[in-house]
Amino acid sequence: MAVWTYSNPVQIHFGEGGFDALPALVGDRSYCVVTYGDAFFLSLVERLAKRSKLPVAVVSDVAPNPDFDQLSRQAQRLADLQLDPDVFVAIGGGSVIDTAKVLAACGGDFGKVRDFLTTKRGEERLAASQIIAVPTTAGTGSEVTCWRIP
Questions:
Q1: If phi over 0 gives left and psi between -120 and 50 gives alpha, with beta otherwise, what is residue 141?
Q2: What number is the average pLDDT over the span 80-101?
Q3: Gap between the Cα atoms of 62 and 98, Å rounded
Q4: Which residues contact 139 (CB under 8 A, 6 or more apart)?
Q5: CB within 8 A of 134, min separation 6: which ones?
Q6: What is the mean pLDDT of residues 80-109?
Q7: Helical residues (DSSP H) of the chain, grouped into ranges
Q8: What is the pLDDT of residues 47-61, one digit of tens each?
């Protein structure tokens, strides 16, 4: 019999009222919300902002399976901010959560992530901002994947 182990150190909060825990999880940190531009998702952003401080940015132009061009434009918008987000709050499905991962890793310079993804080199140049994922779909598991920067 083979012995194996698996470790996936992702903390999960689940249950009724879970969304209301977001302000405490964000705390006093500056944050960027990554979500879809639909009214439902923007109402969740508004709900969070009413119970917390305002986000330093809202990235709401996430498309399914975002490409390098779109991610580069989003990263540039964050690079132009006067205050960098300490944490990224992703509210949506797998594409939203994956976009938040890229934005958290690039530190405003998408070229670092693009280079890493295409060459598998330069990991030490990537940022490691925290992400709080609020999955609104089931299936991708993006909120618990081990694809994170150590």
A1: left
A2: 93
A3: 10
A4: 94
A5: 19, 22, 44, 89, 90, 91, 92
A6: 93
A7: 22-26, 39-51, 68-79, 94-106, 110-119
A8: 999 999 999 999 999
pLDDT of residue 136: 86
Residue 52's closest CA among 70, 79, 30? Answer: 30
Residue 90 near residue 34, CB atoms below 8 Å: yes
Q: Which of 105, 131, 148, 127 is nearest to 32 (CA)?
A: 131
Q: Is the pLDDT of residue 108 over 60?
A: yes
pLDDT of the residue at 119: 92
User: Contact, 85 vs 78, CB < 8 A?
Assistant: yes
